[in-house]
Amino acid sequence: MLPFPVPGTQLVHVGRQPIFDVTGDVVAYELLFRGSMDAVEADRRDTYATSQVIVNTFTEFGIDEVVGDRTCFINLTREFLIGELALPFGPEHVVLEVLETVEIDDEVIEGVSALVAQGYRIALDDFVWGSGHEKLLPLASYVKLDLLLGDLTHLDEIVAACRAHEGIQIIAEGLETGEQLALSNRYGFELRQGYVLSRPQVLTATSLTPSRLRRLELLAALSAADTDLERVLTIIAGDPALTMRVLRASNSAAVGASTKISSVRQAVVMLGVAHIRHWAMLMVVDDVAEATEEQMADALTRARLCENVASAFKANPDAAFMAGLIGAVAGMLGLSNAAMAHQLPLSPDIAGALERGTGPIGQVLRVVNAYERGDLAEVAAAYSGDDLAGTVMDAMRWSRMAVQATQGAI
Description:
Blueprint: E1 9-21, E2 26-32, H1 47-61, H2 63-67, E3 71-76, H3 78-81, E4 94-98, H4 106-117, E5 121-124, E6 142-146, H5 155-163, E7 169-173, H6 178-187, E8 191-192, E9 201-208, H7 212-223, H8 229-237, H9 240-250, H10 264-271, H11 273-286, H12 293-309, H13 317-333, H14 337-342, H15 348-356, H16 359-372, H17 376-382, H18 388-407
Parallel strand pairs: 2-3, 3-4, 4-5, 5-6, 6-7, 7-8
Antiparallel strand pairs: 1-2, 1-8, 1-9
């Protein structure tokens, strides 16, 4: 079991339940909201739950860690279906589930049609004929039939109606007995899901809690008529947690990033303002506690110090700042630099410095590490730049100003 998180961090969770094909192979996972690592079922299926599943999956764990190369099914509420909340990922490897609680009206049909036109696949969850969801059958790729709690008296008619739409696959869910599994076989349902096959698994990770004020400030900056990219970069670079989320999002297969990142600016440019805006909106909905001022200042001091000494080793200052920040966040999460670097889309020079201490940036990190542990002899032997004490004071002043700016943002 994971330990309780240290101050300024949190445990984040996401549930996943396998979906099997007729041969018993796992072909997909349904992603589920879980409020704790020992939660058996979700205690909510609202917009907050959907937002937290999306944020945790794509920016905390990484979609590859959660589902690998398989498809993931994500429950959507009305706000996402009609476009009030935008989806910050592409249609690859994702199926959008229309919850049975969504009232199907013209606005929802229009929104779902737009999503299908963009390439997203749609699944109708807990499908019941006569609920209005049959209007979405022409748009659906999957229909989920609950064989545990659903009304099976009209199963023949429902299956016939689904089969009338070419391309729809039926998922039998709620399978808890051998009899229900046999019923799935008798009707030839392509996919199956339920406790008789596999119970949901809760994945848990330790995460740095982003600053609520920084999220709101970022959202305000992104919502301006003329978005100031430099202000956006300043806000993100000044908050270690936001930096980590932007980096992870840039490496998400759903966003389609293909090149390695060497600066916050590159990550932001790669994702684009629209994607950053979507993530910021979801973080506000997610709305968890902010990191402590002391932790924020320490992380920023280390990053700024790496930036300041970079020129002595002919290292790129932006890359040195990022390496220093990643190392600080790794320490806050109780992870090694190598473990943190392995999760992020880093350029070879930054990855090599963090994982093996190689290159000019590796030299920067060694000097900063030596200074932080009080090994002044090693510092003197390796560093021939300007007075380091003055450089450290500059980094401390800068980080205090950055944190104060955060606290006074609203």
